[in-house]
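mind reviewing this stuff:

——
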Amino acid sequence: MRSSTRRLSKFEPNQVSTLDFQESNTKENELQIKQKINILMVDDHPQNLLALEAVLNSPDYNLVSASSGEEALKCVLRQDFAVILLDVQMPGLNGYETAKLIKEREKSKYISIIFITAINDSTEHVLKGYSLGAVDYIIKPFHPETLKLKVQEFVKIYQNHEKVKIQSERRQSELKVVNAKLERTTSDLRKNETLSKVIGETLLDTIITFDRRGCILSVNPAVEKMFGYSSEELLEKNIMKLLPEIKYNTEETTPFHVKSLNKWVGQLFEALAKNKNQESFPVDIQIGEAKIEDEQIFVVSIRDITIRKKKDIEKIEQYNILEKLVKERTQELLLANEQLRKEIDDRKKIEEDLRLSQEHFYKIFESSPCLIEIRSLKNRRYINVNSSWLNHTGYSNDEIMDQNESLLELTTNLNDEEIQSIENQEYIRNAKIQYKTRSGELREGLLSTEIFEIQGEPCIMRVITDITESVRLEREMTRLDRLNLIGAMAAGIAHEIRNPMTTVRGFLELSKSDPKHLTIKYIDLMLAELNRANSIITEYLNLAKNKLSHKTLQNLNPIIEGLYPLIQAEALRTGKSITLQLNDCPELLIDEKEISQLILNLSLNGLDAMKSGGKLKIKTYAEDTTTVLEIKDEGCGIKSEFHKEIGTPFFTTKDTGTGLGLAICYSIAKRHKAKIDFITDEQGTAFFTRFYETEKELISKGYKNKLLRE
């Protein structure tokens, strides 16, 4: 202990210099910072910034205003601030998000932030403000003097912090001088500390002296606590009783041999000790050698390291756990990095796709054969037109750019609502219009529109498909089709009526020469031929679109049941059968006579198509919002080359048919707003008549009377 005191006296000059350094720092703390203090005020309302400026106006302050969180962050990057007065509710970055970003930056995380708000005054928002590092949370309206005093106090804190910072920088330079002096004494201090540590630890360890044979000569009192033996019990005993095994430059234990002591002297190594209860425990030993009156004496210092070993094991376990956590965290970071790289690649791909999409749109826009114009919805100004628009209309780019009035003068034959939609620039698809070119020519087109935004400005794109030539061709084809139909119908009528007229004329010519030849038999034959001609004309008139119909709300099933005996009689006459499957159906607005004719025509056609033994099925059912009449036969089907001719006047596959039966059915269906289609194969043909106007739909349209006339 005496030597330690003498060693410490060497450091007294350095201690005096340290005191001088502290006195110098105390004087520096009294210096005032002669510069203006920067204070940042953040609020999206200019009037609030003016109010804060009026309250905090002082020659000592440099007041900086920011109208948003983004602008505040830029100000913090440019200069240092003592206090930030931050509004909570702002567009874009709000006060909480701005404060969080400021506190995340190392240079600005110590700035005092005061939240000022007029809305978010709940405890939850106040706690959130404090959790983000705010030093105060003030609710509007605030007391000006109170705010001013709070700002003054936080400015003082900032000034003190700046003083400490300046003093710390100066102390660093002065400490370099002191450190240079201390380095000269570091070596002596280390030796002194090592010696003091060995002495202090040895006093707590077991000290044993033994001779060359290993016989114990003396022990210190610590042996009893460590090994459980008293001093008397160990005297004259062999040292190997306490230290049976040692570890020397290896992890494996070897027996303790007195003969090998010379090579162990002066070294520190581990050994395995045994106490009185024969329990083993790890120790550190160090052997010293001395000669007393030519007798070789050994001194061994023994330290119990059981606790240290446990701590080492715990440290290894903690290290393994930490290493595992580091690996897991590293893996997470690698995955996050991979995810980030993937997101970057995806973003690049999206940008490239957007670029390609814009490029494709421009190519489609320019190369499209349709007339495309883009106009602003605000002032209807032309923004862009494509080449087809210019070529069809005859205008040039210079003539249309920045024009607010429509140059095409669109007109249409649509109803008032559709015309209003075009005028209001609403969503339109393929509306028939006419447009006028620069030369005054009227052309036909189909108009489609789409509304979208270009850099925040609402715009409309109008696409006109020019169908002028198609309309001309369609009109010409319609005219030719009508002429062709008239010719075919005239040929059919002439063929069907000329036959009975020829018979009547022949008999009349015969009776002209000799009236006796005009017998009752011939007169009946002529009347039959005239009736046949009259029936052909009647059936032809049934095809007329303007035929008068007497429609009432009624069900199909009773009409079919009334016709059943007549159809069944015809079926039995030809050795065939008929079945009915009549399901519940809604009432329809129909002419009973016309529908009866339709059912008879389709049923008789089905019976004629079958051989003896065939079965005809008549079925009714509801399908979604339609009522279906199905008539199915078991004939040989209709050949595919005849499908397009079905329903055409005077087309028939029968030897004695007029070709007007199915044509009349199609005409009746059209007058009832129904549709006829069929399915045919080698097992038979099924005709479907679908009625779309049910009772519920008719009532919704305002039909209240039971009897309606079309």
About this structure: Residues 1-33, 700-710 have pLDDT under 50 and may be disordered. Residues 331 and 337 are 10 Å apart (CA to CA). The longest helix spans residues 306-367. DSSP finds 20 helices and 25 strands in the chain.
